[in-house]
Specification:
Strand content: 5-15%
Number of strands: 10
Order of helices and strands: HHHEHHEEHEEHHEEHEEE
């Protein structure tokens, strides 16, 4: 009987030993497969390490996807192309949302915006300038124009033109980093292929809006009245467009008395933006 017990123990020990070997091999194989998968996914990402995905950098995002902690469309900067490429690797069909782009909701640049003081020797940082009475422009909702958003953009998609930040749509990936960098909170994410937007963030009444900025929204409601889709609302003396309803007909653009509703040629040649019917070359 003793021999039988020893034999049984030996068999169990041998089985455990081989099971441990097999488990270790399986775990090693899984780790290797995961690393190979991570490398393939990483090749699909833009490599800007912008952090828009919520992870520290592209390698961390790739690992999260490989481990099943993130979806194929993890990268806002990579957009549809990256999501589809990763989907092929994973054998899934990723669901995509609407491509987005950043838009600075302000038209108060150059001579159109009244100044409170001259800001020359201060730090070239919007947050620093804002601590001095909200910036040098009379409109408290106006773009400060010192380029904090441009400095934060990892894709070099923003530049300052006439004291206002301007987005180069062809370069914008919709990562949204500029939105968080703006101390005035006047940068919004809107659908990439929309043709019109209200270039103002002021909630002042018509008199103060026009006094502070000749290009400000007066909240007159003319745009809302002509919109056949009911896509425009005036709230707090400021018109806004609901892009889930907007058909891009342009009637709002045509009737706006202050020209604060802008039109863009997003399909134009690289480096060009069509604004209010005038083409501005982006250097």
């Amino acid at each position: 009987m003793m021999i039988g017990m020893i034999t049984a123990v030996g068999i169990c020990a041998a089985a455990g030993f081989f099971a441990a070997i097999l488990f270790g091999k399986a775990e090693k194989d899984t780790s290797v497969r995961r690393e190979v998968l991570r490398e393939k996914i990483l090749d699909c990402l833009p490599g800007e390490n912008c952090g828009a995905c919520g992870f520290g950098d592209c390698p961390a995002a790739a690992l999260a996807v490989a481990e099943g902690r993130a979806a194929a469309d993890v990268c806002p900067a990579g957009g549809t192309a990256a999501a589809q490429a990763i989907g092929v690797i994973l054998g899934v069909d990723p669901t995509h949302g609407v491509r987005m782009r950043a838009q600075v909701m302000c038209s108060g640049g150059g001579v159109s915006s009244r100044k409170k003081y001259i800001y020359e020797d201060g730090a070239k940082d919007c947050a620093a300038a804002m601590r001095l009475g909200g910036g040098d422009k009379s409109c408290r909702f106006a773009c400060i124009g010192l380029g904090s958003c441009a400095a934060s953009c990892p894709f070099d998609a923003i530049e300052i033109i006439g004291d206002v930040a301007v987005v180069q749509y062809q370069k914008c990936t919709g990562c949204g980093i500029c939105v968080d960098s703006c101390p005035k909170h006047i940068i919004q994410m809107i659908p990439y292929d929309c043709y019109h937007w209200v270039g103002c963030s002021s909630h002042e009444d018509a008199q103060h809006s026009q006094y502070n900025c000749g290009a400000g929204c007066t909240g007159c409601g003319a745009c809302a009245q002509v919109c056949p889709q009911g896509a425009i609302r005036v709230r707090g003396r400021l018109a806004s467009i609901d892009y889930s309803l907007c058909a891009g007909c342009g009637k709002c653009y045509e009737v706006c008395p202050t020209g604060v509703i802008w039109k863009s040629d997003i399909e134009g040649a690289d480096g060009l933006i069509l604004q209010r019917g005038k083409i501005h070359a982006m250097q």
